[in-house]
Amino acid sequence: MVRRLGTTMAAAALAAVAVVGFQAPASAAPNFQVPFKCGVEVTAATFSGHSPANSVDFQKDGITGMPVLASAGGTVTRSENEGDTSYGRWIELDHGNGWRTRYAHLSSQAVSVGDEVSGGGKIGEAGATGGVTGPHLHYEQILDGADRKVVLNGKAIPYYDHTNVTSKNNC
């Protein structure tokens, strides 16, 4: 009886070690920054029914033509122009460890697929391309293919609200 109990406990302990041993480590997010020049204040708008749900629309009077900066360093994986539909002109950056960011409705793109971009590097200009009703920058943070709630400079953007944020990007 004691022998059977000891064998059962040893098997349970080995099973627990095996489960823990095969878990993927958590991927720490890059320290994403507001994708505009240092000191620029924009409104981060989040709302129910947005697609994807956790994306943010950055709004500001006169935003059209404003430089859009990489919120963290990475490699350009997409640089698309869908004309008057969907995202219009948009860029996606791969930051490693499953993290990507997407920037949409740009008036122009300053990078191409394969380009390495440093954090704070210019990737395009804000605009109103695609299926939009007005100028803004649509922004997403994506982990392993799923959109995540946006965190900028270590602080979560409130959902469903309009929150003023000031860029500390490349300050």
UniProtKB/TrEMBL annotation:
The keyword Signal applies. Residues 56-142 form the M23ase beta-sheet core domain. It comes from the Bacteria. Pfam families: Peptidase_M23. Residues 1-28 form the signal peptide. GO terms for molecular function: metalloendopeptidase activity. Keywords: Signal. This is Peptidase M23-like protein. It comes from Saccharopolyspora dendranthemae.
